[in-house]
Design a protein that fits this description.
alpha/beta; Rossmann fold; 4 helices; oxidoreductase; NmrA-type_oxidoreductase; NAD(P)-bd_dom_sf
Length: about 100
């Protein structure tokens, strides 16, 4: 499976749209902070999982079964490096 963080943002939307041309929706995981904003993705057959960069347990759960990860990092000032580190921590344990 391929996971995309920030899937409900503008860039995430374009990436998923393009990805669906070559990958079945059933192989795509949208990692989002607010699942209510991802209803259209779920309606297309994409798996939606809730997680936040600050919640390591939620990230670990959201990344279960994921083989490839596309990180769209946080655009909040001063949070980009933290979001990358938090996302890599569970990935190391799952490897």
């Amino acid at each position: 499976m391929i996971a995309i963080t920030g899937a409900t943002g503008q860039l995430g939307h374009y990436i998923i749209e393009s990805l669906m041309k070559t990958v079945p929706a059933s192989q795509i995981v949208a990692i989002v902070r607010n699942p209510a904003k991802a209803q259209a993705l779920a309606a297309q057959g994409i798996t939606v999982r809730q997680a936040d960069y600050g919640d390591e347990a939620a990230l670990t759960s959201a990344l279960q079964g994921v083989e490839k990860l596309l990180l769209i990092s946080s655009s909040e000032v001063g949070q980009r490096a933290r979001s990358i580190v938090m996302l890599l921590m569970p990935q190391r344990r799952l490897a």
